[in-house]
Fold this protein.
Amino acid sequence: MSASMPNIAADMDTPLDIAVGVLVDSQGRLLIAQRRPDTPGAGYWEFPGGKQEQGESIFDCLTRELAEEIGVTDLHGAPLIRFCHDRGPRPVRLHVWRIHDWTGTPGGREGQAIRWASAAELDDVSLLPATDVILAALALPRQYLITPGIMDYGEIDWFEGLDQALANGTRLLRLRDPALTDTEYARLAERVIELARIHETAVLLDRDTDMVDALGAAGLHWSVDQLERAGGRPVSSQHWFVVSAHNAAELTAAVEAGADFATLSPVAVTTSHPEASPLGWPGFENERSELALPVYALGGLGPDDAEDAIAHNAQGVAAITGLWPVGKGSRGQRRSI
């Protein structure tokens, strides 16, 4: 190969930047389009979008592609997730936006079929590879509450905090209390799951898989050490599986194990681990990289950090005290669990 010839092989190893728009209607349905017969992945369904052109911002690319493909303009939405994958003919970097408002009626302007579908209906649709990552990000809220220890607040104040959190819109929480025995933890989990069910809030446990099944929890949140001891994903795809990570290597282990999402910490200084060096937002984004899973920013954060989190490719903010709605009251009060 002469020096003047383009390196086609190297070019094929460079991820292709693709803007993807997930249109969500007032009923919560998602717009999908079917790949035409003359395109790669023909017959599969996808969220509409297309390749970024040189000198074009991702949002400008998305605006142009959705106007050309489905005839909608004046997009209103927010970034959802950015990740790379090589599950297709060449690596791609997907820049996914959730679009909640637009002008025009979507239609297949390039001859492709389109349809609205609920997330549940997509289980029976042949989707392009890696769409599962997008669907996970869509299903997850922007805040992930991790509960403090019940003895830090006392039972009455702790349950008051839980009630307030659920009433305020918490829809995803991890029940964390390493001070409890497994028996005590299971009793508390049963009560928490019962309360959370009223608000359609998903509760994740951090003990064993049998407890998840027995109590009807939504999933399992483990450390990397627990994951390594198990040797792989411990629960079925019907449950969420989450991994706590502190660096890129641990996030990679989560991806390889088939985790649905992860937390990455600490982003800022925390009272619980003051000796840990915070990543800061540039460090978070660097460690998070563009791995194919949603990642919550954790450590010294609260609701006011949500905008920074999204700007640095986080799913949102995870926190204990930063999201817990009440202060400590009668600390050390005996629990009855």
DSSP finds eleven helices and 15 strands in the chain. Confidence is low (pLDDT under 50) at residues 1-10, 330-335.
